[in-house]
Specification:
Distance between the termini: 83 Å
Helix content: 55-70%
Number of helices: 14
Strand content: 5-15%
Largest sheet: 4 strands, parallel
Structural class: alpha/beta
Shape: elongated
Radius of gyration: 25 Å
Oligomer: single chain
Protein backbone atom coordinates (compact mmCIF):
# COMPACT_ATOMS: atom_id res chain seq x y z
CA UNK A 1 0.00 0.00 0.00
CA UNK A 2 2.84 2.40 0.84
CA UNK A 3 4.32 1.91 -2.63
CA UNK A 4 0.91 2.50 -4.26
CA UNK A 5 0.30 5.62 -2.16
CA UNK A 6 3.72 7.03 -3.12
CA UNK A 7 3.10 6.34 -6.82
CA UNK A 8 -0.23 8.17 -6.68
CA UNK A 9 1.30 11.16 -4.91
CA UNK A 10 4.18 11.29 -7.39
CA UNK A 11 1.79 11.22 -10.32
CA UNK A 12 -0.38 13.97 -8.86
CA UNK A 13 2.61 16.15 -8.07
CA UNK A 14 4.18 15.88 -11.53
CA UNK A 15 1.17 16.34 -13.82
CA UNK A 16 0.47 19.82 -15.14
CA UNK A 17 3.14 21.73 -13.25
CA UNK A 18 5.46 24.28 -14.76
CA UNK A 19 9.20 23.48 -15.17
CA UNK A 20 10.01 25.94 -12.39
CA UNK A 21 7.93 23.96 -9.90
CA UNK A 22 9.30 20.53 -10.80
CA UNK A 23 12.56 20.97 -8.91
CA UNK A 24 10.59 21.68 -5.75
CA UNK A 25 8.37 18.69 -6.40
CA UNK A 26 11.35 16.34 -6.86
CA UNK A 27 12.40 17.13 -3.30
CA UNK A 28 8.83 16.75 -2.04
CA UNK A 29 8.39 13.40 -3.78
CA UNK A 30 11.66 12.20 -2.24
CA UNK A 31 10.40 13.24 1.21
CA UNK A 32 7.08 11.47 0.57
CA UNK A 33 8.94 8.27 -0.36
CA UNK A 34 11.09 8.39 2.77
CA UNK A 35 8.14 9.05 5.07
CA UNK A 36 6.13 6.17 3.60
CA UNK A 37 9.05 3.80 4.09
CA UNK A 38 9.12 4.77 7.76
CA UNK A 39 5.41 4.26 8.11
CA UNK A 40 4.50 7.93 8.58
CA UNK A 41 1.70 9.64 6.71
CA UNK A 42 2.76 12.18 4.12
CA UNK A 43 2.02 15.75 5.10
CA UNK A 44 0.24 18.28 2.93
CA UNK A 45 3.38 19.99 1.61
CA UNK A 46 3.33 17.95 -1.60
CA UNK A 47 -0.29 18.76 -2.35
CA UNK A 48 0.00 22.46 -1.54
CA UNK A 49 3.01 22.94 -3.78
CA UNK A 50 1.63 20.91 -6.69
CA UNK A 51 0.55 24.00 -8.60
CA UNK A 52 2.15 26.93 -6.82
CA UNK A 53 5.75 25.89 -6.13
CA UNK A 54 7.58 27.66 -3.28
CA UNK A 55 5.25 30.46 -2.31
CA UNK A 56 2.57 28.25 -0.74
CA UNK A 57 5.09 26.67 1.63
CA UNK A 58 5.77 27.79 5.18
CA UNK A 59 9.24 29.16 5.95
CA UNK A 60 10.18 25.93 7.69
CA UNK A 61 9.10 23.80 4.74
CA UNK A 62 10.93 26.08 2.30
CA UNK A 63 14.11 25.87 4.40
CA UNK A 64 13.99 22.08 4.43
CA UNK A 65 13.58 21.87 0.67
CA UNK A 66 16.24 24.53 -0.01
CA UNK A 67 18.58 22.63 2.30
CA UNK A 68 17.98 19.42 0.36
CA UNK A 69 18.64 21.16 -2.96
CA UNK A 70 21.92 22.57 -1.69
CA UNK A 71 23.11 19.28 -0.20
CA UNK A 72 22.18 17.42 -3.39
CA UNK A 73 24.31 19.95 -5.30
CA UNK A 74 27.32 19.12 -3.13
CA UNK A 75 27.09 21.78 -0.42
CA UNK A 76 28.37 20.84 3.03
CA UNK A 77 25.52 20.22 5.49
CA UNK A 78 26.56 22.92 7.95
CA UNK A 79 27.02 25.52 5.21
CA UNK A 80 23.77 24.48 3.53
CA UNK A 81 21.90 25.00 6.82
CA UNK A 82 23.12 28.60 7.04
CA UNK A 83 22.46 29.35 3.36
CA UNK A 84 18.95 27.87 3.33
CA UNK A 85 17.98 29.84 6.44
CA UNK A 86 19.39 33.12 5.14
CA UNK A 87 18.00 32.98 1.60
CA UNK A 88 14.47 32.07 2.75
CA UNK A 89 14.52 35.04 5.14
CA UNK A 90 15.97 37.23 2.37
CA UNK A 91 13.33 36.16 -0.17
CA UNK A 92 10.48 36.83 2.25
CA UNK A 93 11.81 40.18 3.44
CA UNK A 94 12.77 41.58 0.04
CA UNK A 95 9.77 40.48 -1.99
CA UNK A 96 8.42 43.45 -3.95
CA UNK A 97 4.68 44.20 -4.20
CA UNK A 98 3.13 41.84 -6.73
CA UNK A 99 6.22 39.60 -6.81
CA UNK A 100 6.12 35.92 -5.93
CA UNK A 101 8.64 35.45 -3.11
CA UNK A 102 9.20 31.89 -4.31
CA UNK A 103 10.60 33.22 -7.60
CA UNK A 104 13.16 35.29 -5.70
CA UNK A 105 14.07 32.26 -3.59
CA UNK A 106 14.52 30.11 -6.70
CA UNK A 107 16.82 32.72 -8.28
CA UNK A 108 18.90 32.87 -5.10
CA UNK A 109 19.28 29.09 -5.04
CA UNK A 110 20.36 29.01 -8.67
CA UNK A 111 22.93 31.76 -8.03
CA UNK A 112 24.52 29.62 -5.36
CA UNK A 113 24.25 26.23 -7.03
CA UNK A 114 25.14 27.19 -10.60
CA UNK A 115 27.62 30.04 -10.02
CA UNK A 116 28.92 29.42 -6.46
CA UNK A 117 27.99 33.01 -5.64
CA UNK A 118 28.83 33.90 -2.03
CA UNK A 119 25.82 34.23 0.23
CA UNK A 120 26.81 37.82 1.05
CA UNK A 121 26.49 38.87 -2.60
CA UNK A 122 23.20 37.00 -3.01
CA UNK A 123 21.42 38.71 -0.14
CA UNK A 124 23.34 41.99 -0.54
CA UNK A 125 24.22 42.50 3.11
CA UNK A 126 26.11 40.89 5.96
CA UNK A 127 26.62 41.28 9.70
CA UNK A 128 30.07 42.44 10.70
CA UNK A 129 31.37 42.84 14.23
CA UNK A 130 28.53 44.61 16.07
CA UNK A 131 26.85 45.96 12.94
CA UNK A 132 23.82 44.22 11.49
CA UNK A 133 23.36 44.33 7.74
CA UNK A 134 26.32 46.10 6.15
CA UNK A 135 25.57 46.53 2.44
CA UNK A 136 27.73 44.27 0.25
CA UNK A 137 28.08 44.16 -3.53
CA UNK A 138 30.66 43.45 -6.19
CA UNK A 139 33.40 44.36 -6.86
CA UNK A 140 34.10 45.18 -3.18
CA UNK A 141 35.28 42.22 -1.12
CA UNK A 142 32.88 40.51 1.28
CA UNK A 143 33.57 41.23 4.96
CA UNK A 144 35.37 38.20 6.42
CA UNK A 145 35.66 36.68 9.93
CA UNK A 146 39.43 37.32 9.87
CA UNK A 147 38.75 41.01 9.30
CA UNK A 148 36.63 41.06 12.46
CA UNK A 149 39.70 39.77 14.28
CA UNK A 150 41.68 42.71 12.90
CA UNK A 151 39.02 45.12 14.21
CA UNK A 152 39.14 43.48 17.65
CA UNK A 153 42.94 43.72 17.67
CA UNK A 154 42.79 47.43 16.84
CA UNK A 155 40.16 48.09 19.52
CA UNK A 156 42.19 46.23 22.16
CA UNK A 157 45.34 48.14 21.24
CA UNK A 158 43.67 51.54 21.24
CA UNK A 159 42.06 50.87 24.63
CA UNK A 160 45.55 51.50 26.06
CA UNK A 161 45.82 54.92 24.37
CA UNK A 162 45.08 58.06 26.35
CA UNK A 163 41.34 58.72 26.12
CA UNK A 164 41.28 61.60 23.65
CA UNK A 165 39.79 62.04 20.17
CA UNK A 166 41.36 59.73 17.58
CA UNK A 167 42.36 60.41 14.01
CA UNK A 168 42.54 57.22 11.91
CA UNK A 169 43.54 56.48 8.31
CA UNK A 170 42.19 53.38 6.54
CA UNK A 171 43.89 52.41 3.26
CA UNK A 172 41.50 50.49 0.98
CA UNK A 173 38.03 50.88 2.51
CA UNK A 174 36.09 48.39 0.34
CA UNK A 175 32.62 48.09 1.86
CA UNK A 176 33.70 50.35 4.71
CA UNK A 177 33.30 47.50 7.22
CA UNK A 178 36.51 48.22 9.17
CA UNK A 179 35.97 51.97 9.40
CA UNK A 180 32.31 51.48 10.33
CA UNK A 181 33.02 48.90 13.05
CA UNK A 182 35.76 51.03 14.59
CA UNK A 183 33.75 54.25 14.48
CA UNK A 184 30.68 52.53 15.92
CA UNK A 185 32.64 50.98 18.80
CA UNK A 186 34.38 54.22 19.72
CA UNK A 187 31.14 56.18 19.44
CA UNK A 188 29.55 53.82 21.97
CA UNK A 189 32.51 54.48 24.26
CA UNK A 190 31.86 58.23 23.89
CA UNK A 191 35.29 58.60 22.37
CA UNK A 192 35.71 61.18 19.64
CA UNK A 193 36.94 59.75 16.36
CA UNK A 194 37.51 60.88 12.79
CA UNK A 195 38.35 58.19 10.23
CA UNK A 196 39.70 59.04 6.79
CA UNK A 197 38.99 56.10 4.47
CA UNK A 198 40.66 56.08 1.04
CA UNK A 199 40.19 53.71 -1.88
CA UNK A 200 41.33 53.70 -5.49
CA UNK A 201 37.95 52.29 -6.59
CA UNK A 202 35.09 54.74 -6.95
CA UNK A 203 32.52 51.98 -6.36
CA UNK A 204 34.15 51.18 -3.01
CA UNK A 205 34.04 54.84 -1.96
CA UNK A 206 30.36 55.04 -2.88
CA UNK A 207 29.58 51.87 -0.92
CA UNK A 208 31.48 53.08 2.14
CA UNK A 209 29.56 56.37 2.07
CA UNK A 210 26.27 54.49 1.68
CA UNK A 211 26.99 52.27 4.67
CA UNK A 212 28.18 55.19 6.78
CA UNK A 213 24.87 56.94 6.14
CA UNK A 214 22.84 53.81 6.94
CA UNK A 215 24.52 53.43 10.34
CA UNK A 216 24.53 57.14 11.16
CA UNK A 217 28.33 57.37 11.06
CA UNK A 218 28.77 59.92 8.28
CA UNK A 219 30.05 62.60 10.65
CA UNK A 220 32.82 60.27 11.83
CA UNK A 221 33.97 58.92 8.45
CA UNK A 222 35.45 60.90 5.57
CA UNK A 223 35.79 58.99 2.29
CA UNK A 224 38.34 60.00 -0.33
CA UNK A 225 38.58 58.51 -3.81
CA UNK A 226 42.34 58.40 -4.35
CA UNK A 227 45.36 56.15 -4.56
CA UNK A 228 47.84 56.32 -1.73
CA UNK A 229 50.24 58.49 -3.73
CA UNK A 230 47.42 60.85 -4.67
CA UNK A 231 46.35 61.05 -1.05
CA UNK A 232 49.89 61.88 0.07
CA UNK A 233 49.92 64.85 -2.29
CA UNK A 234 46.44 65.88 -1.11
CA UNK A 235 47.27 65.36 2.56
CA UNK A 236 49.99 68.01 2.49
CA UNK A 237 47.24 70.55 1.82
CA UNK A 238 44.22 69.25 3.71
CA UNK A 239 45.14 66.61 6.32
CA UNK A 240 47.40 66.44 9.33
CA UNK A 241 48.80 63.36 11.03
CA UNK A 242 46.99 60.25 12.27
CA UNK A 243 47.05 58.27 15.49
CA UNK A 244 46.51 54.99 13.67
CA UNK A 245 46.78 53.47 10.16
CA UNK A 246 44.75 50.34 9.36
CA UNK A 247 44.55 48.30 6.14
CA UNK A 248 43.43 44.84 5.03
CA UNK A 249 44.56 44.37 1.38
CA UNK A 250 44.60 41.08 -0.61
CA UNK A 251 47.20 38.71 0.82
CA UNK A 252 46.74 35.29 -0.81
CA UNK A 253 50.03 33.93 -2.21
CA UNK A 254 49.96 33.62 -6.01
CA UNK A 255 50.91 29.94 -5.87
CA UNK A 256 47.65 29.13 -4.05
CA UNK A 257 45.26 30.78 -6.51
CA UNK A 258 44.60 27.69 -8.63
CA UNK A 259 44.01 25.50 -5.58
CA UNK A 260 41.33 27.74 -4.09
CA UNK A 261 37.79 26.41 -3.91
CA UNK A 262 35.58 28.08 -6.58
CA UNK A 263 33.33 29.53 -3.85
CA UNK A 264 36.38 31.05 -2.15
CA UNK A 265 37.53 32.59 -5.43
CA UNK A 266 34.17 34.30 -5.83
CA UNK A 267 34.02 35.09 -2.09
CA UNK A 268 37.26 37.02 -2.45
CA UNK A 269 36.11 38.38 -5.81
CA UNK A 270 39.25 37.04 -7.52
CA UNK A 271 38.94 37.44 -11.30
CA UNK A 272 39.35 34.30 -13.43
CA UNK A 273 42.30 36.03 -15.08
CA UNK A 274 45.30 35.58 -12.81
CA UNK A 275 46.94 38.55 -14.54
CA UNK A 276 44.10 40.82 -13.41
CA UNK A 277 44.44 39.54 -9.85
CA UNK A 278 48.20 39.93 -9.96
CA UNK A 279 47.74 43.56 -10.97
CA UNK A 280 45.33 44.15 -8.08
CA UNK A 281 47.60 42.37 -5.64
CA UNK A 282 50.67 44.25 -6.86
CA UNK A 283 48.83 47.52 -6.29
CA UNK A 284 47.86 46.44 -2.77
CA UNK A 285 51.43 45.42 -1.90
CA UNK A 286 52.79 48.64 -3.36
CA UNK A 287 50.34 50.57 -1.20
CA UNK A 288 51.52 48.72 1.90
CA UNK A 289 55.18 49.41 1.11
CA UNK A 290 54.39 53.06 0.48
CA UNK A 291 52.40 53.35 3.69
CA UNK A 292 55.38 51.99 5.62
CA UNK A 293 57.56 54.58 3.93
CA UNK A 294 55.06 57.29 4.81
CA UNK A 295 54.74 56.34 8.49
CA UNK A 296 56.71 59.33 9.69
CA UNK A 297 54.59 61.62 7.56
CA UNK A 298 51.28 60.01 8.54
CA UNK A 299 51.54 59.04 12.17
CA UNK A 300 51.26 61.33 15.14
CA UNK A 301 54.40 59.96 16.80
Amino acid sequence: MAAVAWAVLASIAWRGVSPGSRTVNRCLIRQARLRNRRGFACDLVLTRSRKSGWHELTDDEARRLALQRLVDAGEEQAEANIISREIVTFARKNCRPGENWGDRLERALKERIQHQTPLQYIIGEWDFHNLKGIRVRKPSLCPRPETEELVSLVLDSVSQFPKRPLSVLEIGSGTGAIALALADSWRKQARGVHITAIDVAKTACELTLENAEIFGLSEHIEVIHASLDEFVALRNKTHGTFDLIVSNPPYIPSRLLKSLDPVVRVYLNIPHSSKTFQHAKAYALTSLVHSCCYVQLFLNL
